[in-house]
Amino acid sequence: MVLQVKTSTYEAKTQEIAKQLLAATQENRSFFASLRDQMRWDDKLLAWAMSNPGLRVQLFRFIDTLPALHSKSEIASHLQEYLGDESVELPSALKGMLNFANPDSVPGQVAATTVGTAVETLAHKYISGENIKQVIKTVERLRKEKMAFTIDLLGEAVITEAEAQSYLERYLELMQQLVEASKNWTAIPAIDEADGELLPKVQVSVKLTAFYSQFDPLDAKGSEERVSDRIRILLRRAKELGAAVHFDMEQYAYKDITLNILKKLLLEEEFRQRTDIGITIQAYLRDSEEDVKNVISWLKQRGYPLTIRLVKGAYWDQETIKSAQKHWPQPVYNDKAATDANFETITQLLLENHQYVYSAIGSHNVRSHARAIAIAETLNVPRRRFELQVLYGMGDKVAKALVDKGYRVRVYCPYGELLPGMAYLIRRLLENTANSSFLRQNLENRPIDELLAPPDVKDAENENFFASSSFLGAADTDYAEEKGRSKAAQAFAGVRQQLGRTYLPLINGEYVNTQEFVDSLNPSNFSEVVGKVGLISVEQAEQAMQAAKAAFPGWRKTPVQERARILRKAGDLMEERRAELAAWMVLEVGKAVKEADGEVSEAIDFCRYYADEMERLDQGVIYDIPGETNRYIYQPRGIAVVISPWNFPLAIACGMTVAALVSGNCTLLKPAETSSVIAAKLTEILIDAGFPKGVFQYVPGKGSQVGAYLVNHPDTHVIAFTGSQEVGCRIYADAATLKPGQKHMKRVIAEMGGKNAIIVDESADLDQAVVGVVQSAFGYSGQKCSACSRVIVLQPIYDTFVQRLVEATKSLNIGEAELPSTQVGPVIDANARDRIREYIEKGKAEAQLALELPAPEHGYFIGPVIFSEVSPNAVISQEEIFGPVLAVIRVKDFQEALAVANGTNYALTGGLYSRTPSHIQQAQTEFEVGNLYINRTITGAIVARQPFGGFKLSGVGSKAGGPDYLLQFLEPRAVTENIQRQGFAPIDGVD
């Protein structure tokens, strides 16, 4: 927590300088200038956004969509959809303009032109040019005003290696052209020299993550190698040209790895003496002061100064939302005043260390600049070691006032096409129109004392800004932190020492020997045995069933609070063994590290959520009336057989098992053979948590023998199954047959897969859509029941989408699941590999092969395959493949897209990438899937957030991780008692 900034030796001077600067920025403008601004639509839009929060949200959403709209009628219809929303109170001028019946009408075209032009004008306020020629013009104008510059290249998100290479090449070209142009520039002493030293006239600002499309803190070493190669090329060329390079800071997840890469690189002999390089610190981060202290210590060791650009930070909304969704501590301050106070603390820290660091103070807050100047003047900081910075179009008046006072001012100038620049524009608009923005408060003519007061920091700075009272899930490991990565490495070392051990079934509390054993192999390297698993016989299955029958009367009478306590204990034990459990999954089923970690979270969540849910259900429902009590209560069904899959070997096995147990049923877990070691680890945890003997039993065995025997057993009450449609339908049929001695109907809960589609319409954010489809289709090699195997793309963007999809997929790393760089690992076994290869051959016969990536030979690998121009009725469009094979289907309009999406036997998951409100609305009602995801990936459902399950032939039963799931393991009962005696009954509220 940053301590409240006390009135210090610098405060009086800060106030004096700030008042001078403020006076200079508030000089009266001419009557005609004011009148002209009132007539401009871009200014009107900004003013409306400031005064109307509902309009602000919808307007910015519309602006975000605008680059994807290619005709005036599209613009007009989206204007009506966004701004015609009931939640938006429109100013009369805007209401009048939107009052057209048809987007193709003349009024519709006029509205589209007016607003389109206004947004373009707004963009030009903050974006310094669309090409290098325009940028050169802009910086020459800035230089005439005695302002230096740094150029930032706006662009699409770098999601392919081709784009990463292009990013480097565009910067090399940009530096070349700027330096060429600079040869004709007259020297301006205020910005081109300081303390007798010539300063580079040209400076560019770059983002580290854009140099490698698969940049990931988990793969710190690989990311460093790939990024550093490209940075070295950039820095060498910059030196030849005499240009300076500054490294921007991005999202918090990349902060530590960015600083580590730069520290390492800039200590290399070739770059150690360079002082024309800079790095960035964001003051809204809680750990930024510590980072600055560490960088200063490192600079002392380096022996040559670098620039630190201090900014407030531009991703506040994104960081707060991400941390809330991930259940991670919030990295940014909640309170703007806390950020401002931290900014002032760090400003002082930088300037007090001016012999080691050049300070570049970036802000639009007059007080922040004044504070820096007051400290710099008090300490006599040399001019070379101190400059002030503003964003292009944001602090023009402040910049001019600072130049007039004789300070070096640098303007941060983004340039690029307006289309990719829209995300940047929205960040600037958010900043300008936020209630806490200094620029906005200054425009509103707040009292000077209020504007320039020291930051008033509230005492309570909560790290969980969005903490909610609903179910709080387990937090995934944050691999951006070194401790997360080192724990994973230690876990792999520990697990590797245990490979090859034997795991026996657990029957009636004892581990029992078996006649038959099976080797569980590492699919990344099938010569490696993960463990030997004992498979039970039918006779042993019968023993397990009898043990469950004997244990049932005691378990059903065990109080719900006690059962829930054991579940929560199991969840806690999994949290303690998180890294180890993830390592077992990586090695036994070939799941990449991050996905395995997420699966541990899901298993923990099932334990805790179902414990909560059973306590809720145990309260029953009271329907009392005078003279009579009516209770609606639940009791366990009996014996549950859980048949779990290999693709979610911990989470699904755990979820089905603990749901049955907490409901009071005795449970037999028969896992898939290929994931029986992980099920043995789950068994250890459940026994350690305290489940009594006979209540839970681990019974690995052959599905065709032991599985079938347990399904058909007359004492089985509930069968919970996840797997193929073929086996699921057989179980459903077998369970429906009444067996001799059976006195009940069996309940079947079956999740049987999907043929999941993502629709991408013409208004979609293609950066987001391509990344989302790649992750949904090829994460865990497409071996999730929720994976995307069809992507349905509207005609206008089909070719562009396919091209970017192919390039993004080409950029994925295919390899052993254990490697931190791996995004696509192996498939589960030889049978799966051979079956998927057959489907690929069918695909080649019925569609165009857009991409087939090679794969390593030493495991069960299949490189991602993309087919384009696929018919909706093709085999690869209709049958579940369960591998990294994606069919891309072209459709003419959204109606056809929905028809194609719904045109299979499945209804599990589906996705839509769209920024058209009517399409989103229509998908919500007409897209036939159990789980619909809009503008995000379609995998990774979270307990109590996205309860999971489908209908049609995707399954039967209620959604896992949802409020109805436990009801399937329970029998409801109604108990009525007449409480009258001789006409007397107690009546509530009557004495």
Features:
991 residues, alpha/beta, eight-stranded parallel barrel
Summarize the structure in words:
This protein is of the alpha/beta class and 991 residues long. Helices cover 46% and strands 17% of the residues. The protein is built from 35 helices and 33 strands. The strands form eight sheets. Strands 1-4-5-6-7-8-9-10 form an eight-stranded parallel barrel, surrounded by seven helices. It has a seven-stranded mixed beta sheet with strand order 25-26-27-24-23-29-30, sandwiched between helices. A six-stranded mixed beta sheet has the order 20-19-18-21-22-32, sandwiched between helices. Helix 26 (651-662) links the parallel strand 18 and strand 19. Helix 1 (11-25) crosses helix 16. The longest helix has 26 residues, at 593-618. The radius of gyration is 32 Å and the shape is globular. The model is unreliable at 1-7 and 28-36 (pLDDT under 50).
Short description:
This protein is of the alpha/beta class and 991 residues long.
Outline the fold blueprint.
Blueprint lengths: L10 H15 L5 H9 L1 H11 L1 H13 L6 H12 L8 H6 L8 H21 L5 H13 L3 E6 L7 H22 L6 H4 E2 L2 E2 L4 E5 L12 H22 L2 E5 L6 H11 L11 E6 L5 H15 L3 E6 L4 H11 L9 H17 L4 E6 L3 H13 L7 E6 L4 H9 L4 E7 L2 H16 L4 H6 L4 H4 L30 H15 L4 E3 L2 E2 L2 E2 L4 E7 L2 E11 L2 H20 L2 H17 L1 H12 L3 H26 L2 E2 L5 E9 L2 E6 L6 H12 L3 E6 L4 H14 L6 E3 L4 H10 L5 E5 L2 H12 L10 E5 L4 E5 L5 H13 L9 E7 L3 H13 L19 H17 L1 E5 L12 E4 L6 H4 L6 E7 L2 H8 L4 E2 L1 E5 L3 H10 L4 E4 L16 E2 L2 E2 L13 E9 L13
Parallel strand pairs: 1-4, 1-10, 4-5, 5-6, 6-7, 7-8, 8-9, 9-10, 11-15, 18-19, 18-21, 19-20, 21-22, 23-24, 23-29, 24-27, 26-27, 29-30
Antiparallel strand pairs: 2-3, 12-13, 14-15, 16-17, 17-33, 22-32, 25-26, 28-31
